[in-house]
Amino acid sequence: AGADTVKRAVELDLASRFQESLVCYQEGIDLLLQVVKGTVCQPFTAAVEARLLSFSDGKYHKQIRIEENATGFGYEKLFQEYLTEIVSEVWVEDPYIRHVHQLYNFLRFCEMLVKGPCKVKTIHLLTSCDEGSGRNQQISGLEEIQQSLRNYGVTLNIAFSSSIHDREIRFNNGWMIKIGRGLDYFKKPQGRFSIGYCDFDLRPCHETTVDVFHTKHTKKM
């Protein structure tokens, strides 16, 4: 599987499809390293890793600009290509998973993870705690999501911070996505029976930016 993935990475590389190639190189070398662990193939994996680091002078950064009222930016559109089969752990840092619609945003994000092709086993959520009348609703909603994920073999760890400000999502295959508005970049639908209420690809968005990094090319926090 690792060799096939690297072969696909080389094909994409030669076709100048560098972003897709980078994903395949990363997954391929991770699969190979799981098997190799110091065997005679080590020079080969080192060569692949060197190619991985050669992208953009050793740095990888892609920015997506979502315009006001733009559609077609559901969670699958933003995240799917980074959710490779080796993804098993996810970190979500977002201070605004508090109100009902924000809880639904997080739930839909979790549904995307459960559908695969990744095999997520653990999700870590760090958010702020609603200090007003919505606190009980926030806690009960998160606990319900936690229980539902447990039925799918996924553990949700929930932590609260009163000082959290930045918003980022990290996968254990090295990808990190920062969205200016966090998961809450969709506009309120016109009604419960309006187009876009269920399908986020059809929901108009607020203006925001999405920055994609690879942690091997960024400073560790």
UniProtKB/TrEMBL annotation:
Gene3D superfamilies: MITD, C-terminal phospholipase D-like domain (3.30.870.30), Phosphotransferase system, lactose/cellobiose-type IIA subunit (1.20.58.80). It comes from Cepphus grylle (Black guillemot). The lineage of its organism: Eukaryota, Metazoa, Chordata, Craniata, Vertebrata. This is MITD1 protein. GO terms for biological process: midbody abscission. Residues 72-214 form the MITD1 C-terminal phospholipase D-like domain. It comes from the Eukaryota. GO terms for cellular component: midbody. InterPro entries: MIT_dom_sf, MIT_domain_contain_protein1, MITD1_C, MITD1_C_sf.
